């Protein structure tokens, strides 16, 4: 099955739930723009209803907030038919999230303080290898 990797904006905060067997599942609404901008200067938006399963869903759901932009690896992407409340048929794009690389947040969005990086010791200078030219004069005869 082909995988799709790309930058997607989160449409609403991820919703984490737990199945009866204890498996965590996160529902994520993803969006991306495509095509040429219209007269109003805006491009079309495609929405994807995505799910992420297991420990990864439990761990990453708090970071998948509305408006944030992340790199998602999607699998099992397909069009799903559904019935609307008025009885008409609708279509939606659905996918399973395999992996997420966390990206940027919108202005004003709360974030946890980043841990201070551990101090790294300065590398020891490498010993100079003998070049074998120590016995030559510093004058070059020309």
What does this structure look like?
The protein is mainly beta and 142 residues long. It has a single domain (4-104), classed as OB fold (Dihydrolipoamide Acetyltransferase, E2P) (Beta Barrel), CATH 2.40.50.140. The chain contains one helix and five strands; from the N terminus they run E-E-E-H-E-E. It has one helix at residues 54-60, and strands spanning 4-18, 24-34, 44-53, 69-83, 89-104. The protein has a five-stranded mixed beta barrel with strand order 1-2-3-5-4. A hairpin with a 5-residue loop joins strand 4 and strand 5. The longest helix has 7 residues, at 54-60. Mean pLDDT is 83; it is low at 111-116.
Rounded mean pLDDT score: 83
Biggest sheet strand line-up: 1-2-3-5-4
The computed structural class is: mainly beta
The CATH topology name reads OB fold (Dihydrolipoamide Acetyltransferase, E2P)
Distance between the termini: 71 Å
Total domains, how many? 1
Please bin the fraction of helical residues.
under 10%
Low-pLDDT stretches are: 111-116
How large is the radius of gyration? 27 Å
Shape: extended
- The appropriate CATH architecture is Beta Barrel
CATH superfamily label:
Nucleic acid-binding proteins
Order of helices and strands: EEEHEE
Task: Just give the CATH class.
Answer: Mainly Beta
| Number of DSSP-assigned strands | 5
Strand content: over 45%
Biggest pleated-sheet summary: 5 strands, mixed, barrel
Please tally the helical runs, counting DSSP H or I stretches of 4 or more residues: 1
Protein name: Single-stranded DNA-binding protein
GO molecular function: single-stranded DNA binding
Keywords: DNA-binding
InterPro entries: NA-bd_OB-fold (IPR012340), Primosome_PriB/ssb (IPR000424), ssDNA-bd (IPR011344)
